[in-house]
Specification:
The chain is 37% helix and 19% strand. The chain has 678 residues and is an alpha+beta fold.
């Protein structure tokens, strides 16, 4: 029987292995429960034999009292910064300088430039002993205890070597959103970006709080390696991986500078699909002997340079603040900007989120503001540069800017709402949403047409869509309209009456109920009348519905205006019980239809031949499955269409099974071929 020392050693080795598989390779081999049991057993043994506890034990990642401050420590090897380039011509100029000094063409390694915080890690005999910030390059803060909380930093390497490495600590996008939500709840200002969030976290004095931030690291450089000789930078990165250090997998060995430029061009677009922020490509001469020959300037190496991607943030003047009213009645402040170009698009408006956000940043008309494109789509104001002579603090309206009704704000909520359910702004957006593709799909009833019909008084609420036929002559008399265009719109409205139940549920715009939840509700209750009288207990039986969503659903159906809407829709013949039972998914009965995808989650990348992305995802849901927009632990299959994106790479790294688009579409046709569209 093993003695306790052998058991402890075996458990530590096993936990380190599973940490690497989970945190570094994202390929876990055991369940969370099994991992927790290993850790529990190790804690029990170390508690019984405290003399066996060592600083590299997995149980010692978070230990000790909160720090009183940080000590500045000199770097053994200076942490120099890189020169930046902003164009391909500047990259070629860097290459010419290198060739001139080396008198030959070198190989390069191109690596993603992680938008995080630079740190230095020292290992002695394979054990992590010290971690420093970059500081001024000559010395940095000792943040060893804080770095020990990061699971992608091994406390013991796979070999008993002594070395010092450099890396970038970062916070991924999901973690950033979660941390900012938590800060808003505590009435603390949100971090401006992932880099600031990582830096702020590393300088907290309590390691236990940092451990909750889910920071990560990529190791990118070697400072010292005692007793070891490596020939190239690419060999160094391979050695890091052998030692158990986390290396960004997306580096590339390039045979010439034009290959480097192609890599920069490729990642300018592909970076959008990454789960973390990158702001450029680092270009390094691969040969370590050539690096040594090239040497350093006073502030940076001659053998490396950073290519910075096109700026995603810009500074411009805030001309005004207007408030928009959405379909739920939520008031959203919008910044009216002096037009500025950002990632190739001219930006003149940006969201300010809510009243608290304006107060927190103290944003005033006349200030300069920093604008960022979130996901390269939605511009938002992330910071402010106060004007020398500032205007008055912005006062959020107490009445709706559209209808003049009183504005209310629930305790603990960030949003303010218009109290008038018949507010024209709400009605327009509710009608537009009701008619949108994912809902009743009424072609021709877009934003401009809805605005016109409401302003002309032809539609005063959603159900009035189905009585537009009574205004045929008036519609035909409108400028730009005619008999054919009116016929098309009225025919499309008529077709929408037979859409499946889940589309109608989604069209109601119930708070927290989207397409997936609507499909689950339709599958369980089959007809609208059954859903209308469903209890919270019945709703909670559905897997993806919790108390909050169940409350929103029951509250929606209790409202008098909902009862009125449903009565009018029924009178118009929208999704009557008989048609619902006959139709379903392109004609399949909700009761009899097959559910081959039950319990499976699909993600689609690239384009399909016979279906739009939205149509395919709807069919997946109708056949019992779930459709997700991102690859994750719950993904069952990745459907790979033409021109796939970064989801394919992530799925390959995670070992997620793939289905070719043609095979997937052929399988769908087995269930839906020849049936009328729903």
């Amino acid at each position: 029987m093993e003695n306790y020392q052998a058991q402890i050693s075996k458990l530590r080795k096993s936990i380190r292995y599973h940490d690497y598989k989970y945190y570094v390779q994202a390929q876990p081999e055991i369940s969370d429960y099994e991992y927790d049991q290993l850790m529990k057993k190790l804690i029990e043994l170390e508690s019984a034999h405290p003399e066996c506890i060592t600083q590299d034990s997995p149980t010692q990642r978070v230990s000790g009292m909160p720090l009183k401050g940080f000590i500045s420590v000199p770097h053994r090897v200076p942490m120099l910064s890189l020169d930046n380039t902003y164009s391909f011509d500047e990259i070629r100029e860097f290459h010419q300088r290198v060739v001139k000094l080396l008198t030959k063409e070198p190989e390069y390694v191109a690596e993603l430039k992680i938008d995080g915080v630079g740190v230095s890690l020292r290992y002695e005999d394979g054990v992590f002993v010290q971690g420093l910030t970059r500081g001024d390059g000559e010395s940095g803060d000792d943040i060893t205890l804080n770095l020990r909380t990061i699971h992608t930093i091994p406390l013991r390497l796979n070999k008993p070597v002594t070395l010092e490495v450099r890396g970038e600590v970062y916070m991924d996008k999901k973690g950033f959103e979660r941390v900012n939500q938590e800060r808003l709840v505590r009435n603390e200002p949100p971090f401006a970006n992932t880099r600031n969030a990582a830096a702020g976290s590393l300088h907290l004095l309590d390691p236990k709080i940092i451990a909750q931030r889910n920071l990560n690291i990529f190791i990118h450089s070697l400072a010292q390696f005692e007793g070891q000789i490596l020939e190239t930078h690419s060999d160094t990165l391979t050695e890091f991986q052998i030692l158990g250090l986390a290396v960004n997998p997306d580096y590339k060995l390039c045979r010439g500078i034009e290959e480097v430029i192609s890599c920069c061009w490729e990642w300018e677009e592909k970076r959008k699909g990454l789960s973390y922020d990158v702001d450029g490509i680092v270009i390094k001469v691969n040969s370590l002997a050539e690096q040594k020959r090239l040497g350093f300037t006073a502030r940076s190496p001659r053998w490396a340079v950073a290519f910075k991607f096109t700026a995603e943030a810009a500074t411009t003047s805030l001309k005004d603040i207007v408030v928009q009213v959405g379909r739920t009645g939520a008031l959203t402040p919008v910044a009216i900007l002096e037009p500025v170009e950002l990632t190739g698009v001219t930006i003149s408006r940006a969201t300010l989120h809510n009243e608290d956000e304006i107060k927190r940043k103290d944003i005033r008309i006349g200030d300069k503001v920093i604008v960022e494109r979130s996901g390269d789509v939605i511009p938002k104001v992330i910071g402010v540069v106060p004007a020398k002579e500032r205007g008055k603090p912005y006062e959020f309206p107490e009445t709706c800017p559209v209808c003049g009704a009183k504005v209310y704000r629930l305790k603990g909520e960030a949003k303010s709402f218009c109290t008038n359910v018949n507010c024209p702004a709400q009605i327009k957006r509710k009608i537009e949403y009701f008619a949108s593709r994912g809902c009743l799909d009424i072609e021709g009833l877009g934003t401009k047409v809805v605005d016109l019909l409401v302003e002309k008084g032809f539609i005063r609420e959603v159900a009035d869509i189905y009585w537009l036929k009574d205004h045929r002559s008036e519609l035909e008399a409108l400028e730009g309209w005619g008999e054919k265009s009116v016929d098309n719109l009225l025919n499309n409205i008529e077709l929408s009456k037979n859409r499946p139940l889940d589309r109608l549920i989604n069209a109601f715009g119930i708070l927290h109920v989207g397409a997936q939840t609507a499909n689950s509700l339709a599958s369980k209750f089959v007809v609208l009348e059954a859903l209308m009288v469903a209890t919270q207990e019945e709703l909670l039986e559905i897997e993806d519905i919790g108390t909050k969503v169940a409350t929103c659903i029951t509250n929606f159906f209790k409202q008098p205006q909902t009862q009125t809407l449903l009565a009018k829709l029924k009178k118009a013949g929208v999704n009557s019980p008989n048609s619902t039972l006959k139709k379903g998914v392109r004609g399949l009965s909700p009761i009899a239809r097959p559910m081959p995808y039950a319990g499976k989650e699909f993600v689609i990348t690239g384009s399909l031949s016979h279906y739009s992305r939205q149509e395919a995802e709807e069919l997946i849901r109708k056949l019992g499955g779930k459709a997700s927009s991102s690859v994750g632990k719950k993904t069952t299959f990745l459907v790979v269409g033409e021109n796939p994106g970064s989801k394919l790479e992530k799925a390959e790294k995670s070992g997620i099974p793939q289905i070719k688009a043609e095979e997937f579409e052929a399988e769908l046709k087995k269930y839906v071929q020849g049936l009328p569209a729903g």
